[in-house]
Structure prediction request, 188 residues.
Amino acid sequence: YRVGQSVAANVYRAFRSAGLFLLTDIETVIDEEEEEKFCMDTGNRLTCNDGSCYTISEKCDGVFHCLDGADELDCPEKLGPSFTPINKRLWPYWNRFFTLSFAWQSTISYPDGRAQICVDVPTDIGTWIVSAFSISQQNGLSVLPSVVMFEGTRQFFIVVEIPKRPRLGEQIGVRVDVFNFQAHRIEV
Prediction:
């Protein structure tokens, strides 16, 4: 047993919640129909990826009743007034589009087994842990034996936010954030 980032009840559901298909020639003991039948037998309910159940009326109601939000998947987009709360409007631009999966890529390897991937590492503050796996006809599933850690925190940087197009005579505000992650003070 290994603790992972998925709330899935078993390996099959972990693959399914990640949008992957489990293709294998071994006999699996997971019977998806039996799992879904259990929830249907307990009051006409649907199955979450972690094995718990939710009612049909809870599907697409805007509230997560499953730990991974499976009850809100494949829901039609709700149309309504477009309102952005003030905390989201004033949040720094680069934090709103923060992505944790910048290195998730699929590539085909060279005949000798090597593969090369070039990605732009985000400039966000944080430590990135990178791992890899591959699937081949000869070796099956191969996993990188150890993870690679990358520290993405810049020691000193400045972020400036200004309007894109000021007009002549207009009074504007310029937001300047100075970040110092060094162990000592610095004069700017």
User: Anything to note?
Assistant: DSSP finds four helices and eight strands in the chain. The chain has a mean pLDDT of 75. The two ends are 51 Å apart (CA to CA).
